[in-house]
Amino acid sequence: xxxxxxxxxxxxxxxxxxxxxxxxxxxxxxxxxxxxxxxxxxxxxxxxxxxxxxxxxxxxxxxxxxxxxxxxxxxxxxxxxxxxxxxxxxxxxxxxxxxxxxxxxxxxxxxxxxxxxxxxxxxxxxxxxxxxxxxxxxxxxxxxxxx
Length: 147
Description:
Layout lengths: L1 E8 L3 H8 L5 H4 L3 E8 L8 E8 L2 E13 L3 E7 L3 E13 L2 E13 L2 H9 L2 H21 L1
Antiparallel strand pairs: 1-7, 2-3, 3-4, 4-5, 5-6, 6-7
């Protein structure tokens, strides 16, 4: 399952990238974010692995992020492994003007390891896109407040 989400942010591209590229800021725009722990590789660079923890309702969720490409502003890509699914994200930053940046997210849920996520993707694929767009909108609000 593939989809694209994007948001226009009223902040210069360099500042948007600075805010995006700092894992300490995840708590500011990702609902349920608990922690970020570097596991291996050079932090923030291709090959680096990190453990991301989130709380959704009463459940905790863990993801292993592996950075695959970091060529900012053109691309930041990674894979995200969860016990029930795997996905990849390609982020691109486009300067629209001196004070406006578009952030594009290309998402590919390429592996469902259990029945329930597979069923949700089949019956209600929009839920994944809606959640991703919510995070992008929250990043926009955070970036514009922090500019």
